[in-house]
Amino acid sequence: MHLSSVNAAGMERTKTMTHQQLIVTSAVLFFASLSCGFLVEPDQTQEKCYQELGCFNNRPPFHSSERAENYLPGDLKNQQACTIPRNSSTVETLTVTDPDPANGTHFSGFTETKVIVHGFLQSSREQWLHDMVRELLKHGDMNVIVVDWTGGAVLPYGQAAANARVVGAQIAQLLQFLVQRFDITYDRVHIIGHSLGAHAAGYAGERVSGLGRITGLDPPSPYFDGTPPQVRLDPSDAAFVDVIHTDASSLLVLGMGAAGAMGHVDFYPNGGSNQPGCDQDLISKLAHTVWNAAAVGVYAAEGAVACSHLRAIDLFTESINTPCPFMAYPCASADEFNRGNCLTCTGNGCSRLGYHADEMAGRGSLYLRTQKSPSFCSYHYKISLTSENAVDGIVTVQLTGSRGHSEAIPLTQSNEIVHAGTTVTHLFSTRSDIGDLSEMSVHYEKSDTLIVHLLYADIWKLRAATAFSGETQSRSEFCAEGQAVPDKTTTVFNIAGHC
């Protein structure tokens, strides 16, 4: 493995690709590789050894019903890593096998070290790597290492999955060298891996004792879901393992990510699949992939076919420096969360998705909502309206606070009956923090049908109106008791105490 060093200012953005059509075809080829081994016969050899890295076999658990194609790792002699010390302005090339490889380097043993590992069909040229490095160095003084395993992250997918084992061993070897040469400690090392890079990070953590943290950005499901811990990323690989799941859809719609928990804390933004702003079905994904490749380029094509898979990267990168907390909440399921039943942080059960996840006590499976475009972070509110009488119509609510107001939030749809004495609850998220709540505006529009006109009143009478903020854990009551909202009218209710 080679090690190059350059700071953020000297890190050039490389946009030219020699494989412009790769992403266009990779979506189809990837699934062919899962079903038929991509017309490549897996290596039947039981073991393969590498100097200084040890031996790897393809016996169980690396050959099982979840990993039917028992590939051995390939030849990955020239995998590279670039290290970007914060205060360096020159490009440095280091080789682990050199008798004195660190001569003249700006790498510091006194700061934290971040290691970023790309995923399947990617390289160090990816724009997201440049963006993440920039945000990390903006946040604080640290060493940032970018691992480039382009030669191993290629089709067929099964071979790339096997190659990730060697990449993990090489990362562990690099960390051992840094410990010896710079006296760093493993507990100050944080590996951030996307896709197969997340599992490679797990293999690295398995080989070193006391690794501080691993962040898995949408670890893939194929060849890993349902396997024993030694095959995939798991909580034993570091003192703290946090995982962001964004593409846990079925393989039939090109879903790549794993749904199963793999860390001390697992985040499921928007339920962990089908991210807002991304195509949801197979036809749309493939159509936009081809169109974007022809009209824009390889990066846009990749963004179309793997939009949800890449969203984990976007969320983590944004979380580094944003003041928005990316708060996530413990819940039994995405459905329960969407019903508004899980917005409390009882017993310090919440945590912040992304970079600051290790600063909070929340563990287990946590849920949150995000926006469809940057800025992705959201603020969560639960609105509850209790009805005094039965109505049938569309109810829309807007919250106003000290810093602004929310968008109009539909609580009911047309021809939806609200019975007397029942409470209508709705969970919604807003892009900006609207501050301390002061008003709730309620608009009611009665359904325009003859039977509704005959059976239901033109005025909606309320018994109570409340809003709960997930970020502040505060409940606001509004002056709605006994108040009425006439048909096709908006009524404004002040915060309790200012009626």
Descriptive overview:
By secondary structure, the chain is α/β, with parallel strands linked by helices. Helix content is 22%, strand content 27%. Strands 5-1-4-7-6-8-9-10-11-14-12-13 form a twelve-stranded mixed β-sheet, sandwiched between helices. Strands 16, 17, 18, 19, 21 and 25 form a six-stranded antiparallel β-sheet that branches. Helix 1 packs across helix 6 and helix 3 packs across helix 4. The chain is elongated and about 85 Å long. The N terminus is likely disordered.
Short structural summary:
With 499 residues, the chain is an alpha/beta fold. The protein has nine helices and 25 strands.
Compile the SSE list and pairings.
Blueprint: E1 2-5, H1 22-36, E2 47-50, E3 54-57, E4 80-83, E5 92-95, E6 112-117, H2 127-139, E7 142-148, H3 157-182, E8 189-194, H4 196-207, E9 213-217, E10 240-244, E11 265-269, H5 282-295, H6 298-305, H7 307-319, E12 327-330, H8 334-338, E13 351-352, E14 364-368, E15 379-387, E16 391-401, E17 404-405, E18 409-410, E19 417-418, E20 423-430, E21 437-446, H9 450-455, E22 459-469, E23 474-477, E24 484-486, E25 489-494
Helix pairs in contact: 1-6, 2-7, 3-4, 5-6
Sum up the structure in keywords.
alpha/beta; twelve-stranded mixed β-sheet; PLAT domain-containing protein; disordered N terminus; elongated; 499 residues; calcium; 22% helix; 27% strand; six-stranded antiparallel β-sheet; 9 helices
